[in-house]
Predict the 3D structure of the following.
Amino acid sequence: MSIRYQKRVNLGKGAGINLSKSGASYSQRTKWGSIGSRGFSIRTGIPGLSLRQNWGKGGGAGLAVMLAIGAFVISWLILYNAVRFIVHLISLIIIKIRNHGEKDSTRKTA
């Protein structure tokens, strides 16, 4: 049986320093999971179920995984913002059409 020590010091906005008997490490928590100097974890939305991956001692494979995750997140953010922009343009066009019809009816009566 071994003794385990783990403590997280919050630095604000999801950032923190993790302290354990093997040393200290930095991590950043997001709504999708957390990423740090020793690895990452991804939340699934199912309580008790998450994906966890350590970088390992070399760190080379970890950098490739980190870049792949970053590219995936950036591509989703671009897609999300493009859809939001299109929906916003459509709503502006609909408002413009409705307001134009109201102005025409007031001009004819005045």
In short: The helical segments are 60-109. The mean pLDDT is 77. The first helix runs from residue 60 to 109. The chain is about 45% helix and 30% strand.
